[in-house]
Amino acid sequence: MDKRFLTWLSFTLTLLPALALAQPYDVAARPISVLRPGTIVDDGPPEGWNHLIVKSFPKVASGDVDKIPERDSQLASLMFTALAARTQQAADGTWQLTEIATGAGTSVRGRDMIVSSDTQQQLGADLGFFARMVLKEFDAKQTQVQYKTISRHFFVVDTIGAFRWNNENRLLPLRYALVLQPQTGQLDTFCWLMDADATGVSTTAVGSIHWLPKSLVFAPQLHVDYSKYNFLGIPSDTAFCSTNIPPGQVTMNIPADATRVLARPTLSVAEAQSLHGWFNQISTSMRPNYDRAAASDTGTTQR
Prior knowledge:
Elements: H1 3-13, H2 16-19, E1 30-31, E2 33-34, E3 51-56, E4 59-63, H3 70-76, E5 80-89, E6 95-108, E7 111-114, H4 129-142, E8 146-150, E9 154-165, E10 168-180, E11 187-196, E12 202-211, E13 216-218, E14 221-224, E15 240-242, E16 250-253, H5 269-285, H6 287-296
Keywords: Signal
């Protein structure tokens, strides 16, 4: 990334209020929607949604792979997850964000389908006992995905995932910022990992900010830590951890003075306005960089 841009980015942080966009912001945390069971998720927006943010198929790739049963490797790669957004055009021609939803699914009759533990059998997934247990865990995790900011043109959403960070398998929050251009309907998504305290509350943004490709499909590479299995041979929720977050079309270093505001567990209205202004400025001023990277990319599907 251009060093001049990093200097500009750091400087811009001190001017965030000046970049704020005048609109109401709801900063009360609440769960996001869940994709309807039976929804087919291919490599583009699911039916009823006009944006696929990310679809991920985890793959066991490193660590104590030889120490675990083959069944566990298969179960770790059985399910995919998806995040989709809906935008709507108003009567005056402008666009607004209306909803974002998450879901988990598996292959059913050769199609990637959203399922739940209550619907998988009738939808034709016919999962075995252990696979149903895995799906129940996915069902529970979906309730932990929360809005942190809602406005007409800006969403902040937090997910909780198992990530390999600083050579340790941990549960850490991953934050998404969605920025909509009201005149064109163009939606940009940024994401970054956050460190957390012992209770799981986010403390600082870590790594880099990833500006995601459109309709990103990728395979998180899972690192196995056999020490996270219990004495009965049952894996904990950190036995399999992703070594990578959704890959960006463009990535940006996080300025030192931005690490805390980007990871604030509860945003104030002023902070939400400022972050909206910041990401809106990035999505417009850095557009040529993003477009050049997209033009040179051979595709966003990584499986």
